[in-house]
Every structure is written in C-alpha cells, then in structure tokens.
Design brief:
single chain; alpha+beta; 5-stranded antiparallel beta sheet; 5-stranded mixed beta sheet; rod-shaped
C-alpha cells in the first residue's frame, strides 16, 4: 500500500467515523425527543380519561350497591370499546374491594399508592405509566387505576430506529459517493503536479505546472512551485556561469605562468634579464590568482550562508578618516577629499565595511584621470547613515549601470585586463552591504564621473 492510498484511506476512515458519531448523536436525540413526546402524550390521555370516568360515574351516588356494580360493569365495557384505535389505555375500577378490570385482574397494581400522581412501573414485559385516583360520590368510594400499554410505544420506537438506521445507511452511501467525486476532483490536479515535478531535474528546468485556478489552494501551491523552479533555474544558470567565468579567469594566469616556466626551461634560464622578467611575471600572476581565489572564496562562503559577521559597535567617522589618510599615502596620483564626516555608531563587521569602502575607492582611482579628485561624504539621516563616494572618472554608460553588480562583468575587457580586474569587486561590495541590511546605489554620467551611495542602518 503506497502513501497515497494510505492517506486516502485515512481520510475516508476519518470521514466515516465522523459520520457515524454525528448520526449516532442525531439518533439518540431523535429517540429521546420521540420518547419524551410519547410520555407527554400518554400522560395527557390518562388525564383526559380520568376526567371522563369521573363525569360518567357521578350518577352512582343515587344508586344502590347492585345498581352501582351494574353501572360500573357497563362503563368498563364502554371504556374498552372507546379505546379501540386510540392510544392503548387500560382501566381498573375498585368498589368495595371488588375489581372491575378492562384487561385482567392480574394487571391490578397497588391502587391505593401515590394517589393522583404518575408512576413508572416495570413489569415482566413493559414499562408502564400508571395513575391511581380516589373518587368519592356521597358515601361511595371508587378507586380508579389508569395505565398505559407500552407495546405500541415500543413498536413505534423500533420502527423509528429502523427508519433512522436505513436512512443513515443511505446517507453514508451518498456521502461516500460525493467524497469519492470530490477526491477525484482534488487528486486530478495533484497528479498533474506530481507528474510535472517528476519531469524536472537540474538539467531540464523548462517544465512548469499548468495553473487552472490561481485563487484556490492548489493554484497557490502550483504558483509557489513554479516560483521555486524559476529560482532554481536562475540559481543553476548563475552557478554554471560562475564556474565558467571562474575557470576562464584562472586559465589566463595559469597560461602565463606555464608560458614563462616553459620559456625558462628551454634556455632562457641562462639569461639573467629573462629570468628576472619571467619570475616577476610569474609572481605577478600568482598574486593575481591569490586575489581572485580570495574573492571566489568570499562569494562561495556567502552563497553557502557560512559567512559569519564579526559584529561590533564602532564609530564610522574614525574608520573613514583612517581609510582616506591611508588611501592618500598609497595613491599619489589623485586628490582625496572628505566633505562631511558626521559621527554615527554602527553595529557591523568593521573589516567587511572597510573592505567594501577600499574596493570602491580602488575602483574610483582605477577609472579617474591623474590629478583629479575623489571625494567621500559621510552623514546620517533619520535611522540611516549614508556614505557617498564620488569620482571624476570616465563614467558608466546608462545601459551598463544595471550590470555593474553582476559577477565577472567587465565593461572594458581590454582595459580591465591590463588593470588585473576580474569583475568581482562591485559584486562583493553589494554582498557585504546586503549582509548588513543596507543598500547601494550607483549614478553615473559617461565621461563625467560616478557617484556610489551606501545606505546603512544606524545602531539605536
């Protein structure tokens, strides 16, 4: 038995149990209501009969004993006749210890007990409702005992229970048919979803689930699965592109190292100038590879969510002041200027923020002509701190701005190769800012300059 069958049987079993509990509860309530109604009806008929008896026997007050007995006998016969076709009631009249019974003397109960009250008596066959009365007419005393026969009530109850039972069977069968129909309607799109999902693998993510009704639960589930497949498709394509680009970037320095090694090996090692040049180029490419691998490692750790931030509280203005002083010492070809440097306390990974700012300044210096200015403006506004880096470089064409944060994106392939750029710097900067719940924006005009704005939350 597979899981689908097991779930289906569980649902049907649960449904049947629920139906049985509900129907049993309804049956009990209906039977109790019916019995209560029968009880009230029987008591009402007993009361009516007692009034009729009292009215019919009033004339015996003027009769002698023999006439009284004769009259009582006649009335018993009349009462028995009038009960035909009605709710079965039986009457016993007792006059001077003489019993006049509409049924049999064996059905005489303690007629002097609980006068005027209803009693419930369980005999060998039935449960009876009995009422004993004492009627006085002059010097004559007559005990009246009226009791019901529960055979009819019992038969009516059995008939009612049988009707309820068979109607319940009918209701359950109809309900099962409806459940099976609903199950088929529900399972059909689920089967379609399962069939489509089975076709999807990492080599073919083109399949999508057909959405019939986007407003119901299955439609929403299908949309969620399609969205997940879209994200997986983008992720796999990005991963493949990342591997391809990384391989391409590593291939170039490896080719240079191998070329110089082969050159030295075939005879250039006897030429001191070639040795120095070859070793310098090999060392340069090794440094480039080391830089590339560090960046790739950072991105890989970030992708796998294992990049742990060393969060501390620090003063951003001090970090910027120190950064700009060192940058001015390293780069003598440009002028570095601080416009504002407002005090703000940040809760962030200081080393990562420093790495991001260095990367942005290095990028600005790479594309800014000598003796031009690179400025940094640092200020806070409401709950955020802003760092704005502006250069007077070549700028970025508007059509390329949306691509600058993509990995391995290089705007000018030939020029960037000369500057040992791999197209990972801005991608890493964006990842660092995102790790700190911040945002980064770029505005640029071609041949005028570029402005990069970083927005970071301030510690409260």
């Amino acid at each position: 038995m597979n899981k689908h069958t097991s779930i289906k049987r569980t649902v049907i079993t649960s449904y049947l149990l629920s139906m049985l509990v509900i129907l049993a509860s309804i049956h009990i309530v209906v039977i109790l209501v019916f019995l209560n109604w029968e009880d009230r009806t029987t008591k009402s008929e007993i009361n009516k009969t007692s009034l009729v008896i009292q009215k019919e026997l009033k004339q015996i007050k003027d009769l002698d004993k023999a006439s009284t007995i004769e009259l009582i006998n006649n009335k018993i016969a009349e009462f028995e006749t009038t009960q035909i076709g009605q709710h079965s009631l039986y009457i016993n009249l007792i006059y001077e210890s003489i019993v006049f019974s509409a049924k049999s003397t064996e059905y005489i109960y303690d007629y002097k007990k609980e006068l005027g009250k209803f009693q419930y008596i369980l005999n060998s066959k039935n449960a009876l409702i009995i009422k004993n009365l004492l009627l006085k007419f002059g010097d004559k005393e007559i005990y009246v005992q009226i009791f019901s026969d529960s055979d009819e009530i019992k038969n009516d109850t059995i008939a009612l229970m049988n009707s309820l039972f068979f109607s319940s069977i009918f209701i359950i069968m109809i309900s099962l048919g409806v459940v099976r129909k609903i199950d088929k309607i529900i399972q059909s799109p689920i089967h379609e979803i399962t069939k489509t999902v089975k076709k999807i693998n990492r080599h073919d993510l083109s399949e999508r689930i057909t959405i019939i009704n986007p407003n119901n639960e299955l439609g929403k589930l299908s949309m969620a699965i399609n969205d997940m497949i879209d994200r997986l498709d983008i992720s796999f394509k990005s991963q493949n592109k990342f591997i391809s680009n990384a391989s391409h970037e590593l291939r170039t320095p490896l080719a240079v190292i191998k070329g110089y090694a082969d050159l030295l090996n075939i005879g250039a090692k006897s030429d001191p100038v070639m040795i120095d040049r070859g070793l310098a180029e090999i060392l340069k490419e090794v440094n480039n590879m080391e830089n590339l691998l560090k960046k790739l490692l950072f991105l890989a750790r970030k992708e796998n969510n294992i990049l742990k931030n060393n969060i501390i509280s620090f003063e951003i203005s001090l970090l910027i002041q120190e950064l700009m002083e060192k940058q001015q010492l390293i780069d003598k070809d440009h002028t570095y200027k601080i416009l504002r440097n407002q005090i703000s306390i940040l809760n962030a990974d200081k080393d990562l923020i420093l790495q991001a700012l260095r990367e942005l300044l290095k990028n600005s210096s790479k594309y800014t002509l000598e003796n031009h200015e690179i400025s940094i403006d640092s200020f806070h506004k409401r709950k955020y701190h802003y760092i704005v880096i502006k250069d007077q470089g070549k700028g970025i064409p508007k059509k390329n701005i949306k691509h600058v944060f993509e990995r391995f994106y290089i705007q000018d392939e030939s020029r960037n190769r000369q500057k040992n750029s791999f197209g990972l710097g801005l991608s890493i900067v964006k990842d660092i800012i995102k790790l700190h719940d911040g945002n980064i924006y770029i505005e640029s005009e071609f041949n005028i300059g570029t402005t990069v704005t970083i927005k970071l939350p301030i510690s409260i």
